[in-house]
Amino acid sequence: MFFNELAVKQEVEDRINRLRAAYADNPLVKRIDYRIGRDWSDDPCVYVNVVLPGKDVPIPEVVKLGQQIRENPQGLAYTDDIGLHTYVRFAT
User: Fold this and answer.
1) What is the pTM of this model?
2) Which CATH number belongs to the domain containing residue 77 in this structure?
3) Quick check: 15 pLDDT over 60?
4) According to the model, what pLDDT value does residue 73 have?
C-alpha cells in the first residue's frame, strides 16, 4: 500500500468515533459501522454504513440525513485527504 496503513486505520477510527458521537442522539441513526477495504478500481477506501432504526424511515428524512453527513463541517465521514475514497451507505 502507498500509505501508512496503521496511521490511516487510527485516523479513520477516530473520525468514525467522532461521527458516531455527532449522531448519537439522532433518532434516525441506530448505529454507524465501517470497514476499510478496496473499491471496484482497487483503490483504498472506507465504507461507512449508517444503520437506520427500521424500514419505515421516510425517504426524505434519509436524504436530509445524507446531506447533513455529507455537509458536516468537520468532514468526519470523508477520508480523501488521507488517501482513501469514502462510500456512505444507508441500511436497516
Assistant:
1) 0.84
2) 3.30.70.1350
3) yes
4) 59
